[in-house]
Amino acid sequence: MKIYVPLDSAAKALGADEVADAIATEAARRGMDVEIIRNGTRGMIWLEPLVEVETPQGRVGYGPVEADDVPLLLDGKLASLGLVEQLDWMKGQTRLTFQRCGVIDPLSLQDYEAHGGLVGLRRAIGMPAADIVEEVTTSGLRGRGGAGFPTGIKWNTVLGADGPQKYIVCNADEGDSGTFADRMIMEGDPFTLIEGMVIAGLAVEATKGYVYLRSEYPDAIEIMEKAVVLARAAGVLGPDVLGCGRAFDMEIRVGAGAYVCGEETSLLNSLEGKRGVVRAKPPLPALEGFLGRPTVVNNVISLATVPVILEKGAQHYADFGLGRSKGTIPIQIAGNVRHGGLYETAFGMPLGVLVDIVAGGTLSGRPVKAVQVGGPLGAYMPREKFDTPFGYEEFDGQGGLIGHAGLVVFDDTADMRDMARFAMEFCAVESCGKCTPCRIGAVRGVETIDRIGQGDTDAIALLEDLCETMKDGSLCALGGFTPYPVLSALHGFPHDFDVKTEAAE
């Protein structure tokens, strides 16, 4: 009897370890032959701990399960959810990047290969470097870390750069609110990230890689470190990758918790042991990156998607999506929602469908007032914009951004002036301090929003002018994108900034 219990951080926070221990104890007491497999999460966080029992028909789900439910579970008397793959949440998805997450034992390379792992790498080994780059370019894959820059163009720049050493750097410093896709893939399917980095190394002729992982993710750090050791022992990493005669090795580096180190040049400074401050561009990291060498810097999900592109072909991936937003996007749903979790789907699904149907509306039962898309620097989208298709250009046309594809939902009790103030305060706290518009502008932004709250009508125009200065003059996206939540709150929810009404009251 095989029973799957997630080891994902969210599942553990909800009691998964206690459930696994209870199953082991009760099975031993009964003399039952039970194999407990700790898998990643399927992404249905409201059902965690989601326990799955293998049957001839498929894996049957139970959840949320508590330790006290275990006797009923082993008796076969606990009410089930049905076959996990047939649940509405799972059936509605197009799982490419996350096809194995929640399905396999994350640290079983044999399990990984049995579910399609290493097929992409083996194909890449037989291809010239330029052909691998062309495959990724044709797929239309764009950076999943926020900017949406075409991955193939970045790789091609590094391939064409001169240098005695080139590097692949994975940005795993996932610090945006409401985002957890990077953590989920590292905890639930680490070998897909490793495989993607090796393919990237072959594509640009780099032989060394680093994963810059945030210290707040201890489980992901542990799993990634173990996976690297296993991959090296199996010849997936090392001086002779799968016997092809080419080298690629990698290691895990842990950051110290600075939000700004999610910006690629600040990350590179930190990786080099320097203070995590933003570098001026040019030079681009693709030409002078880690230790001054040509460097590919990609997000976890970007690199973890590469294996499926090489496995199934560029056109297969590009056939999904909308316009220039090709493929699928892992959308992370959080905030005041009934069904929070990760939902991978092709680009193009309207925002309102994600909020009202997939997320099930608010947990509080009150009307949805706003959805912030793209982390703490993302715009607040009012219901009037819920017909916007999920795509880079489509969101940009509505004054928003997709960013890391995190959705945080707010009901009608949210005060959008307070949310705008939080954005400025967040920027002030997290600024690396290198450029004036971000360092000083964010502090003045908090003061200006406070003036609006005190009835100063002139401060509204001042806030708009300040946001334009930050947008145009900041050195990186921290200061440059802070105006998105501020201005979207101001223009989309003017009643929350109605100083005349507040003064009268």
Distance between the termini: 66 Å
How are the strands of the largest sheet arranged? 2-1-3-4-5
* CATH C-level label of the largest domain: Alpha Beta
* Residues in β-strands, percent: 5-15%
Known CATH architecture of the largest domain: 3-Layer(aba) Sandwich
What is the fold named in CATH at topology level of the largest domain? Rossmann fold
Rg from alpha-carbon coordinates: 23 Å
Number of β-strand runs? 16
Taking pLDDT < 50 over at least 5 consecutive residues as the criterion, the unreliable ranges are 501-505
CATH superfamily of the largest domain: NADH-ubiquinone oxidoreductase 51kDa subunit
Helix content: 40-55%
- Overall number of structural domains: 4
What integer is the average pLDDT? 95
Describe the structure.
The chain has about 500 residues and is an alpha/beta fold. The chain folds into 4 domains: about 90 residues, Glutaredoxin (3-Layer(aba) Sandwich), CATH 3.40.30; about 210 residues, NADH-ubiquinone oxidoreductase 51kDa subunit (Rossmann fold, 3-Layer(aba) Sandwich); about 90 residues, Ubiquitin-like (UB roll) (Roll), CATH 3.10.20; about 90 residues, de novo design (two linked rop proteins) (Up-down Bundle). It is about 40% helix and about 15% strand. It has 23 helices and 16 strands. Strands 2-1-3-4-5 form a 5-stranded mixed beta sheet, with helices on one face. It has a 5-stranded mixed beta sheet with strand order 13-12-16-14-15. Strand 3 and strand 4 form a beta hairpin. Helix 6 packs across helix 13, helix 9 crosses helix 10 and helix 10 packs across helix 13. The longest helix is centred in the middle third of the chain and has 16 residues. The protein is globular. The N and C termini lie far apart (about 65 Å). The C terminus is likely disordered.
